[in-house]
Write a structure and sequence with these properties.
Blueprint (H helix, E strand, L loop, with lengths): L5 E4 L2 E13 L2 E6 L3 E6 L13 E7 L2 E7 H4 L12 E7 L2 E7 L1 E9 L3 E2 L4 E2 L2 E2 L3 E7 L2 E6 L1 H19 L1
Length: 166
Amino acid sequence: MSDKMQTKSQGGLDELVQLVSFKLGKEEFGIDILQVQEINRMVEITQIPDAPSYVEGIINLRDKVIPVIDLRKKLGLEATEHCKETRIVVMDVNGRMTGMIVDSVSEVLRAPKSTIEPPPQMVNSVNADYLSGVVKLEGRLLILLDISKIAGEVHSAVDELAEVAA
């Protein structure tokens, strides 16, 4: 599927973006489907000593070691127990893989780019630094995450730990 799908709007053509939506508590978030490698059930996570609190550890996925973060902790939300709906969303950001633990994955959505608005400074308790926008869809509000920023911080922290251990 192409991410360059288009739909007619009043002023001509409006490009569509495809988003994977997922939940953290009562909030619904979205990320660009082009950055999502796969969505997995929870697996055993190996902890990394001295890692930041939001880094749950690492997993081995098809012979690749991937850092995994608890997205609730990273965004400053209250931690909860994992359940059968909990998923690890594996992202590819600039060629580096990162896993994010989310409460549940909802669906794949298409949204006209024109419906994406800049994020407000505070969306409930989520740090606006990690948001790239907000989409209004069929009476729902979908918070778009800046995955590049989140993954960049995770990889910096993991790289630092690897240097210290070397």
